[in-house]
């Protein structure tokens, strides 16, 4: 440690401390000269003043909530906050405990395509599964899924903030691959898919495609809900 320069020491500590600097995409409002939270942005402008807001990568201060959860929760007991404030802070810290379990699976849980490429369900009636990724195009779908998550539409981002972290009582996956499709939001536990449609979905040819896609997903017991961008933005 004594052989490191002050700069090297600072960089090492920065990787371990509770508060640290890093780069991240934020909502930047030039007129207000500040970063805004997602709930402070409405239809691309600031809730206060109606000024334009853009996505921008900036150097920000962050907190390592997960690594310091126990210390933060213990610290709440030492401060003179109201019980309501302590509960709010505890929920914000959001410590959770889990377990990792390995299960032995007999046979394949994914239906295999037929030699002609048309069949998708070659299993008994007692084995109802749907394949969440078509192996032949998985790498391409994975790439597009990641890009879509990094660059969501305004409506997708608004809906994601309302669905994430089990807010509806079930885990949601966004830009998730099911067979050869990438769906906007998937609640696999309850077999629900949510799609957010742009204006091009009003075109006749696209409507035919969407209907076929819906029927295909229904074959696997998945229920599909569709909303327009306008519906999500104006009445989330």
Describe this structure in words.
The protein is an alpha+beta fold and 236 residues long. The protein is 31% helix and 22% strand. The chain has 7 helices and 9 strands; from the N terminus they run αβββββααααβββαβα. A 4-stranded mixed β-sheet has the order 6-7-8-9, sandwiched between helices. A 3-stranded antiparallel β-sheet has the order 2-1-5, with no helix packed on it. Residues 108-129 have low confidence and may be disordered.
Could you give a quick summary of the protein structure above?
With 236 residues, this protein is of the alpha+beta class. The chain is built from seven helices and nine strands; from the N terminus they run H-E-E-E-E-E-H-H-H-H-E-E-E-H-E-H.
pLDDT averaged residue by residue: 82
User: Taking Cα atoms only, what radius of gyration do you get, to the nearest Å?
Assistant: 23 Å
Distance between the termini: 53 Å
The 3D shape can be described as globular
Helix/strand structural class? alpha+beta
Number of helices: 7
**What is the H-and-E element order?**
HEEEEEHHHHEEEHEH
Largest sheet: 4 strands, mixed
Assess the beta-strand content as a share of residues: 15-25%
Helix content: 25-40%
């Amino acid at each position: 440690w004594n052989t490191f320069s002050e700069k090297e020491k600072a960089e090492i500590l920065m990787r371990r401390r509770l508060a640290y600097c890093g780069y991240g995409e934020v909502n930047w409002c030039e007129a207000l000269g500040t970063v805004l939270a997602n709930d402070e942005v409405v239809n691309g402008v600031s809730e206060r003043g109606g000024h334009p807001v853009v996505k921008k990568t900036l150097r920000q201060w962050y907190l390592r909530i997960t690594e310091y959860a126990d210390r933060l929760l213990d610290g709440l007991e030492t401060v003179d906050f109201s019980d309501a404030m302590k509960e709010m802070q505890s929920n914000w810290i959001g410590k959770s405990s889990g377990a990792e379990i390995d299960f032995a699976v007999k046979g394949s849980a994914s239906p295999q395509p037929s030699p002609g490429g048309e069949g998708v369900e070659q299993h008994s009636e007692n084995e109802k599964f749907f394949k969440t990724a078509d192996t032949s195009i998985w790498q391409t779908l994975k790439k597009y899924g990641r890009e879509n998550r990094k660059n969501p539409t305004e409506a997708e981002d608004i809906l994601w903030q309302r669905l994430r972290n089990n807010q509806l009582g079930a885990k949601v996956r966004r830009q998730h691959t099911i067979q050869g499709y990438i769906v906007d939001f998937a609640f696999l536990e309850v077999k629900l898919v949510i799609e957010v449609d742009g204006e091009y979905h009003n075109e006749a040819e696209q409507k035919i495609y969407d209907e076929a896609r819906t029927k295909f997903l229904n074959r696997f017991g998945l229920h599909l809900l569709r909303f327009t961008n306008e519906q999500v933005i104006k009445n989330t």
